[in-house]
Design brief:
With 54 residues, the chain is of the alpha+beta class. It has two helices and two strands; from the N terminus they run E-E-H-H.
């Protein structure tokens, strides 16, 4: 689970064909992703999440 800078959280799983994130299966590749930008699907849809304040 990633905590995004916008305040939302995102599960990052590898579940083909829906989500192709093979890097989650390799510990070294997962470490390389820490701190890298990741687009928030909630923000892209202009949705409000229960984990954000007013």
């Amino acid at each position: 689970m990633a905590e995004l800078s916008c305040g939302h959280t995102q599960h990052l799983r590898h579940q083909p064909p829906w989500q192709s994130r093979a890097w989650v299966l390799d510990p070294a590749q997962r470490i390389e992703k820490i701190g890298q930008p990741f687009a928030c699907g909630w923000c892209a849809q202009a949705s409000v999440s229960d984990n954000l304040g007013d």
